[in-house]
Each structure stands twice: as C-alpha cells, then as structure tokens.
Amino acid sequence: MTSMFYAVLVFIFKSPALFLLRGRKILCLCVLIFTVTVSLAQTPAKLDTIVPGRGTPKQQIEESKAIKKQVLADSTGGQPAKSPLVDTTTHNHYGDLLNDDIKYNQKYPWWKPAVNVVGINLFTWTMDRFIFNEPFSHIGPSTWNYNINKGWEWDSDRFGINFIGHPYTGSMYFNAARSQGYSYLQSVPYAVGGSLMWEYLGENTRPSYNDIINTPVNGAFLGEIFYRLSSNVLDDRTRGSERFFRELVAGLINPVRGLNRLLQGKSFRHTLTEVYQKEPLNITIYGGIHQINVDNKTIFGSGPTNQLLTVQFDYGNPFEEIRRKPFDIFRFRTELSIGTGRKILDNIIGYGILFGNTVKWNRLSVLYGAFQYYDYWDNKTFELGAIGFGGGVITRYNISKTLDLYTNFHVSAIPLAGNSTRYGPGTGEVRDYTYNDGLETKFETTLNFGKYVNTGVAFYYYILHTFVGPAGNNYIAILRPRINVRVYKNLSIGFEHFEYYDDRFLKQGPPIYSVRTEQKIYLSYFFEDSQRKGHYD
C-alpha cells in the first residue's frame, strides 16, 4: 500500500504529463493526509510504558497518567510545569524523547540509502520512459557523454517543476538516509548525490544549475519536515487497526520512510517504550472563499472568487528552554485555491530553525537563532520561489493574563529565487520567470485578546537582482492584515486582506509598477496538541 502511494507522488511531481493535471489530485491527497494527520499526530498511543516487576499494568498506567498530569499542568501557552520525574537530558518537559532511540533506529551502512537513491531515480525514469514516453527520458551513453562534456545551464522548465517538483524529489533522496538512522546533516549529501545522478544520467538535456541548488536544499527542508510529521504519527507501541492507520498515514506523508519501514520490519515491530522524537504539534485548518481582484483594482468583488483550503503546522515550543537541533522548531503552511484557472497550489511558505537558544526576561520570552526559509507562490497574480538562510527572532510578551503579543522577525540572504516576468505567470510550457539572488525580510505579529479575538499582520519584503533574464532589480512587498473571532471553542471566523506590490526596474526599459489585492473570508479550526497544550503564534 505504501509503495503505491509512493508511486503516485513520483508520477505527479516528476512527470510533466501528470504535472499538468496535478492540481485536483494534490487537493484530494492533501485533504486525506492532513485530515488524518490531525487526529493521529496529536493522539498519543493508549499504551504506556510497562516495566515488569513494578506492579500491575493498570497500576503503572495510572502512575504514568499522574506524572503526565503534573508535567502538563500549565496549558495556558507558557512553559510546561517542570517535574523532577522527567529526565530533561533525554526528554523534553512534556516527557517526550529529544532524539530517536538509537537502539530501535540504528544507522544502516552507507550503501543502503545509496541504493534507495538509485532506486528512486530508476523508478522515476522508468515511468517517464515506458509509461509516458517523455522526450527527455530517451537516454543512453551518447546523452551521458553529451551532458558530461557540454556542461551546465539554467534550464527553462516550468516554474512548478523547478520550485516544487524538484524539491519534493530531493526530499525523497534526503529521507532515503534520514529514515535509515542518519541525522539531518548526514542526509543532505544523499540529496546532492541523487540530484547529480539525475542531472547527468536521468535526462537527455544538459544538467542545470537551478536543479542542483533547488533539489537538495529545499529537498532537505521538505524532507526533514516530512520526517518530523511522520514521527509524530508513528507509535510502535500500538497494535491492530490503530497501528495500521498510523503506518498508512506516515507512509503517505513520507513515502520513502514508509517503504523502508516495510523492508526493515519496523511496520510490524512492537515496543514497550516510545522510540521516536516528538515535539508539540499544533495544526490550524482554514476553509472559505478567496476573492482575487482584477488588475490594479482594490475594490472587493471585482474579480473571480475561488474556494480556499489552508493548513498550517506549528511544530515545537519555541519558548521551552532546551537545546535545539535542526528543525526542532518549524512552521509549515500550504494554501490551495480551487476554482477558476489551472493554478491550485497557491503557496507554500515556512521556516525551520537550524540552531538557536531561548531566553526569558520576566514576561518576555525570546527565541533567537539561524533559520532556513522556503517560499513558493504560484497563483493567478504572480510566481515567486525563494531559498533563504538567515537569522530570526520569535517572541512572546504576556501583557496581561488575557493579552498576549507574539512576533516573528527574520532577515535572510537569498542565493536563488525565481520571479515571474513583467507579463505575469503564463500557462505555456516555457519559462516565464527569471532567476535571481537577493535579500528578504519577514515580520509577523499576532495580538491575542484571550481566546476570543486575535488580530495580526504579516509583511514580507524581497529585494531581487536578476542574473538570468531581463537585467534589473525587483522590489516586492506582500502585506497580509487579518482578524479572527472565536465562534465556538476552537472554531473561529476570520478575514484577511492581501496586497502584492512589485516595483521592477529594468536596465533596458521603463520601470514597471504593479499592485494586486485579494480578500479572504474563512472559518478556521485550531487543533491544539491534545497532550502538549499551548498556542505558539
């Protein structure tokens, strides 16, 4: 079953024939994965660790519940109550492992993940060559010699292929190693190797600079997020139907890990203790209507109306004082816009910490550190994809018992970006975007009025220098003010206004200024981690 879903994902993202039809398939798959992930990733196994000789299982379960109740006493969004019963050198303050248990997650020899990577490329090429008969898949010694001798280029593949298709494939290379006991940093070379193999041997077109950057870098970003989310779903202590569905959903989120678990026998293994690192995971789902205004008009209702579905994952508590590894904290948000036009995957944005520290001064808590950023916008208004590395600060200030202010501020360098041309995104098969480098700044703030109202604004600013395409500089600003009002428990109704500004200064030609506006009305439901409460905005 897992291998079947693995095949489906490869078809969708790697084969241009299916990439044209990917939208509704991705929508159905995302809805299935996200819906089930909400229930399984936040629901701990009913089984607790049972130690022979320490009383009956019932007595030990009751003791464990009492310990958890004490540890989780603070559910207001602050740091969990500390307990001497929790060893914070191996567990976080919620009682979960800080690292995967190496006894049950051994590191396999280097050649095993390498075989995985080769298998991913062979499988993908087989589908492209013998099922879809894609022109680029007709390869052999002559094309390999041509690629090696001719050298590298900036390719002209469609925006989605380069900025989401290749990163997704990179995530599979990455997880070939990550799912076999390798750390985040140790898994990155496998993503690089898989990309090099494909660029030289998998296609009859010249290897491209953008792919060898996008595939491993953004592939590691997506790969680690998929690994962490699947870990929050998996629980080797479970049995029966619950175990089946946990394995199935984890395999959908992370197909390579699901396949390897089957081959390694982990899918059927039963343990008495938790063996995977888990962190607090809060999930917010938004559903509503998306109004896209025509041209430069800012009047509400002047353009088409689409349906929107947005899912946001907030992983880890940034205000827990604990040692950080890469992606112990991340935010991952994806939005689908369904209706007019072929573009459905509207945007994917997120960040993950690489290293950092948390400090506290009275009512103020601050996480500072180095982050990796991923930006992907592909809608009717514009295309923008960017890789970012830089520094960030996440803060929480308790103004009063019912008033909290959360902020995010980030500044990063952009080694590679794609940005739509002056004519806007097209529907053709050729490149309609430029390649750029530059800088980006992100600022987000949320003010919570108890549990009843929260209001906030997000502001993103990009400075892009074009090095492939019409020479010049772009200054792009995105502004997103919003307000949410609680309707019932964790259900809220909200409104967001979206503004996109693009000031383009070309070396040859007059400057170009464009403004686009959108409005969104939605219902949102906040799935707070059932065992590790606290809203980390």
Automatic annotation (TrEMBL):
It comes from the Bacteria. Residues 151-256 form the DUF3943 domain. This is DUF3943 domain-containing protein. It comes from Mucilaginibacter ginsenosidivorans.
